Automatic annotation (TrEMBL):
This is Substrate-binding domain-containing protein. InterPro entries: Peripla_BP_I, SBP_2_dom. Residues 62-318 form the Periplasmic binding protein domain. Gene3D superfamilies: 3.40.50.2300. Keywords: Signal. Its main location: other. Belongs to the bacterial solute-binding protein 2 family. One of its GO terms (cellular component) is cell envelope. It is found in: Cell envelope. Residues 1-30 form the signal peptide. Residues 35-58 are annotated as: Disordered. It comes from Nocardioides flavescens. GO terms for molecular function: carbohydrate binding.
Length: 354
């Protein structure tokens, strides 16, 4: 992907960072803390006004499948889906056991098809591998809501709910520009996720493009594996190689636990760090101002919860209440806001635990 010219970048990311943070976009339609029982995940049908989208209707049976909850963000994906379903008296959610086995996930969807559920919300372990069975569901008249990892064929889903990986990089880069834009010689480092994944490539490209807007670039980069152990290992290597750093962007707050451990072990504090995904422990550190972590960029773990709400609307033949259109949109992409000490209180109650 080529670097974008300044006007093109502004067109892609919309309003500047400050305006974007004020708007907060659509991402906050559901909470996502697995440990917060009181998190508000949307209106309950018991409290819905007559004629509203949340008013109880015919029961909707929704099948849900996602990968194994082997890290905090993924655990919150499933927990948030459960919580939002529980807030609707007219939703029956059937949750398949989380799995990283593609063949098992295919069989889960086949079971939903055979059971004639009303809709399927699916976060694929592998979008390409799950495309054929998703097409089968659609051909059987069961709408599929594709979450986070896209299918190969757009016809395999009625609705796709996505985070914004490119936008995460842009938000992180714009924030660093706001802090270091008057220091053209500032040293910026990046701790990425798995380099072979398109999501990592998109995050890195957005980061590079945004830094270029203020004349900065990525001076040092290490790729980790989205785990605590890998985050600690690659950060230790980066710190040994770079005697002076002004800012670090870490793509993922789960691996950030290891990143911060390596920074503490090295006794380094001359730089500030921006996290990624928006975990509760990262936000608590930002609140406490107790280390180098100064901000994090949200990648919502509410996507499946939004998928449940959209599935319900589809089956009940309703539209999104704040839109003029009479049909649910085909694609919903959530915003990637930056969380700092100034606005952390707006986000921490719906954050996931790493």
């Amino acid at each position: 992907m080529k670097s974008l010219r300044p006007t093109t970048l502004r067109r892609r990311v919309g309003a500047p960072l400050v305006a974007g943070l004020a708007v907060l976009a659509l991402a906050a339609c559901a909470g996502n803390s697995a440990d917060t029982d009181e998190a508000d995940l949307g209106s309950s049908t018991n409290q819905a006004e007559s004629g509203s989208n949340d008013e109880a209707g015919d029961t909707v049976v929704i099948g849900f499948s996602a990968p194994q909850a082997d890290h905090g963000w993924m655990a919150s994906i499933t927990e948030s889906a459960r919580k939002v379903a529980e807030q609707y008296d007219d939703v029956e959610l059937r949750v398949a056991e989380g799995t990283n086995d593609v063949n098992l996930q295919i069989s889960q969807v086949e079971t939903f098809i055979n059971d004639k559920v009303d809709a399927i919300v699916l976060l694929p372990f592998d979008g390409a591998a799950m495309t054929p069975v998703a097409l089968q569901a659609m051909e059987a008249g069961i709408p599929v809501i594709n979450v986070d990892r896209e299918f190969d064929d757009p016809n395999a889903a009625r609705v796709t709910v996505l985070g914004d990986n490119y936008g995460m990089g842009v938000s992180a880069g714009q924030y660093i520009c706001s802090q270091l834009g008057d220091q053209p010689d500032a040293v910026v480092a990046e701790i990425a996720g798995i380099d072979s994944l398109p999501l990592t490539q998109d995050r890195s490209q957005g980061f590079e493009d945004a830094l270029g807007e203020c004349g900065l670039d990525v001076d040092a980069r290490q790729a980790a594996e989205f785990t605590v152990e890998s985050g600690e290992e690659v950060t230790a290597n980066l710190l040994q190689a770079e005697p002076e750093i002004d800012a670090i962007w870490n793509h993922d707050d789960d691996q950030g636990v290891g990143v911060l451990a390596a920074i503490e072990n090295a006794g380094r504090d001359e730089f500030f760090m921006v996290g990624g995904a928006g975990s509760a422990n990262a936000m608590r550190s930002i609140q406490a101002d107790d280390g180098v972590l100064q901000a994090t960029v949200v990648y919502p773990s509410t996507q499946a919860a939004d998928g449940i709400k959209l599935a319900r609307l589809l089956v009940q033949q309703k539209a999104m209440g704040d839109l003029v259109e009479v049909e649910v949109p085909r694609t919903v992409q959530l915003y990637a806001p930056v969380v700092t000490a100034d606005n952390v209180d707006q986000f921490i109650d719906s954050a996931f635990e790493s």
